[in-house]
Design brief:
By secondary structure, this protein is an alpha+beta fold. It has one domain. The chain has two helices and five strands; from the N terminus they run E-E-E-E-E-H-H. The chain has a five-stranded antiparallel sheet, with no helix packed on it. A hairpin with a 2-residue loop joins strand 1 and strand 2. The longest helix is centred in the middle third of the chain and has 13 residues. The N and C termini lie far apart (23 Å).
Length: 89
């Protein structure tokens, strides 16, 4: 599970070969013991729970970096190392 970004205590990761579980491009986020899987395409929380303030930050970050996230998703699904993506500032 490579972490691709970290900001405001939020860790964002994409798992290798993780296209079977949710069947769509997604990221995994962690914050103070909370975990969630979030769709890259529309920001839907696919699994888990994430605090609303931090979720809003993650959704803004996804919108800014959607193209990069989709490229990282393709790399990770094929077993390759995804690139780091700049944090939300």
């Amino acid at each position: 599970m490579p972490a691709i970004s970290m900001f405001y205590g939020i860790i964002v990761a994409i798992y290798y070969k993780d296209n079977a579980g949710h069947n769509q491009p997604h990221i995994h986020v962690r914050y103070q013991g909370e975990k969630a899987s979030i769709s890259i395409e529309d920001g839907t929380v696919l699994a888990g729970y994430f605090p609303s303030k931090q979720l809003r930050m993650v959704l803004a970050w996804i919108e800014i970096h959607k193209d990069e996230l989709m490229a990282d998703w393709e790399l990770a699904v094929s077993g390759e190392e995804p690139f780091r993506i700049p944090p939300l500032q």
